[in-house]
Structure formats: structure tokens, C-alpha cells
């Protein structure tokens, strides 16, 4: 997904650069080759691996804790509360790598000579603030994103069993249940991308702008249309990622003898 993310970030910074996803990939490949389209791949891998471990682990923890504390609460409300809390902590793990990734992908000239050099440059010029200056917009993007991701996924899974397949989850094999997981994951990913896209654009612009630029300035500069630049590549990217994440997660649960998520 790094090549798609690369084009998406550049379209958000300047939506006149590329006409569409295919045009962006072609131009980057033409000028920079495979290294260009995979720019930012390492911080993406590290950042989202840490965030993913925190997000899913904290979600299961807080879902259990909240359900014990509020046994009569609405299920969707519990999903929303648990996912929001989980994402709050997971983003603290993600933010430094997200800041580094955006610098790599949107810099007009090579930002650094390597991973360690890039981190050192950010720290020397802006200190710890350079890694966390986008934390509030990141929360604005990721918390609604994750609330939609978990709550919509659980409800879509339930809806597939109840309204489409019209049979209880227990009557299907584990492989068939994972097929439901994959389908619901992609649909949930589409909703996630739409809900969180304006904040994603602000994060990209903020991390590539001069020190002292505020989120409010970026919103005024871009306008409503600019905030939605790069939406289609992001829908494809987030849909695929969310589908993959849920499938891997539920496959692991099946492997250790646990039921797949949702639909109970």
C-alpha cells in the first residue's frame, strides 16, 4: 500500500501535481523508479505495526472492561467507547513514524540519507515537538476512523449473518466465517476512509509545512474541496488494509481456538 499512500500524500499537498492515482504512480516510477514509489515504506511498516498491536490489543481489553462496568449498555456504544480509547493510546505509538513518513513522501528533494539520519534531522531541527506536532490532527483522523472501523465492522458482520446469509454464525465453517470477516472489513474500510479523510489531509499538510503552521491555517488555505483531495486512492488503500487487518486478526484468533469477531 506504500505506493498508493505516496501518491495520496502528494495529491493532498498539491492536488495539481497528479491527475489521478494511475498518473501519479506512472510519474513517480518514471522519475524515481521503484525506490520512489516505496518512499516512506520503513516508517510506515514500523509505525503502523506498533499502532496495530496497540489498537487491537487495547480494543479487546477496553471492550471487556467497559462491558463489565456497564453490562446493560448498548453494544454499539461499547464498541465506540472501546475503540476510541484504544486509538488514543495507539496513536501515541504511531505519531513519530507518521511524521517521518510524510516528510519523506512530500519533500521536493531527498529529505535524508537514511532512516537514522531522518529521525536525527527532525529531532535536531524541532526536538520532540517535531515528532508530535501532528498528534491532535492525528487523533482527529484516527479516533473517528477507528470508531467507525470497529463499530461498523461488528454491525456489518451481524448484518451479513442476519440479513444476507440468514443463518447463525455457528452454522458456518471457520473458512466461511473468515470470508465474512474479509467482506465486512473492506466495507468498514470504505466508511473509515470517508469519515477520516479531511483530518488525514490536514496531517499530511501539517507534517510537510514549516514549523508554526496551524491546522486552522491549513483548513483556510485548502478550502472544502482541497480537504478531500486524494480521497479515491485512500478509499482503495484503507479498504484493502482494513480487510487485510481484520482477516489476519481473525485468522490468528481461529488459530488459537477463539471465535471470529462479531456476529454472536
β-strand amount? under 5%
Mean pLDDT: 87
Query: How would you sum up the global shape?
Result: globular
Total number of helices: 10
Question: Which regions have little confidence, pLDDT < 50, spanning 5+ residues?
Answer: none
Instruction: Tell me the total number of β-strands.
Output: 0
Structure keywords:
single chain, 264 residues, mainly alpha, 10 helices, 80% helix, 0% strand
Description:
With 264 residues, the protein is mainly α. It is built from ten helices and no strands. Helix 1 packs antiparallel against helix 10 and helix 3 runs antiparallel to helix 4. The longest helix has 35 residues. The protein is globular. The chain starts with a helix and ends in a 9-residue tail after the last helix.
In short, what is this structure?
The chain is an all-alpha fold and 264 residues long. The chain is built from 10 helices and no strands.
What's the helix and strand layout?
Elements: H1 2-13, H2 21-37, H3 41-69, H4 75-106, H5 115-126, H6 129-132, H7 135-165, H8 174-208, H9 215-227, H10 231-255
Helix pairs in contact: 1-2, 1-10, 3-4, 4-7, 4-8, 7-8, 8-9, 8-10
Amino acid at each position: 500500500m506504500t505506493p498508493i499512500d505516496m501518491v495520496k500524500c502528494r495529491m493532498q499537498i498539491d492536488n495539481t501535481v497528479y491527475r489521478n492515482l494511475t498518473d501519479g504512480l506512472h510519474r513517480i516510477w518514471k522519475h524515481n523508479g521503484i525506490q520512489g514509489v516505496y518512499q516512506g515504506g520503513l516508517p510506515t511498516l514500523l509505525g503502523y505495526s506498533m499502532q496495530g498491536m496497540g489498537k487491537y490489543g487495547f480494543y479487546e481489553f477496553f471492550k471487556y472492561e467497559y462491558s463489565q462496568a456497564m453490562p446493560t449498555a448498548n453494544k454499539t456504544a461499547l464498541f465506540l467507547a472501546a475503540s476510541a480509547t484504544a486509538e488514543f493510546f495507539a496513536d501515541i505509538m504511531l505519531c513519530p513514524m507518521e511524521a517521518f513518513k510524510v516528510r519523506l513522501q512530500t519533500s521536493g528533494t531527498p529529505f535524508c540519507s537514511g532512516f537514522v539520519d531522518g529521525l536525527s534531522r527532525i529531532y535536531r531541527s524541532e526536538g520532540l515537538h517535531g515528532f508530535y506536532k501532528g498528534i491532535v490532527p492525528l487523533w482527529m483522523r484516527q479516533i473517528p476512523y477507528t470508531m467507525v472501523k470497529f463499530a461498523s465492522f461488528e454491525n456489518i458482520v451481524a448484518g451479513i449473518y442476519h440479513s444476507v446469509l440468514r443463518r447463525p454464525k455457528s452454522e458456518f465453517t471457520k473458512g466461511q466465517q473468515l470470508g465474512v470477516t474479509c467482506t465486512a472489513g473492506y466495507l468498514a474500510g470504505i466508511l473509515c476512509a470517508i469519515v477520516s479523510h479531511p483530518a488525514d489531509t490536514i496531517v499530511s499538510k501539517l507534517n510537510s509545512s514549516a514549523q508554526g503552521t496551524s491546522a486552522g491555517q491549513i483548513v483556510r488555505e485548502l478550502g472544502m474541496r482541497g480537504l478531500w483531495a486524494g480521497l479515491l486512492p485512500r478509499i482503495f488503500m484503507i479498504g484493502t488494509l482494513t480487510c487485510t487487518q481484520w482477516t489476519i486478526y481473525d485468522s490468528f484468533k481461529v488459530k488459537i481456538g477463539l471465535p471470529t469477531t462479531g456476529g454472536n
